[in-house]
Amino acid sequence: MRGLGALRSCLVLLASPKTPRRSARDDGNSGRQRACNQNVATAQTLRTRDEFARFFTGLELVEPGLVQVHPWRPDPEDDAPEGTVSAHGGVAVKAG
Question: What does R_g of the chain's alpha carbons equal in angstroms?
Answer without folding.
Answer: 16
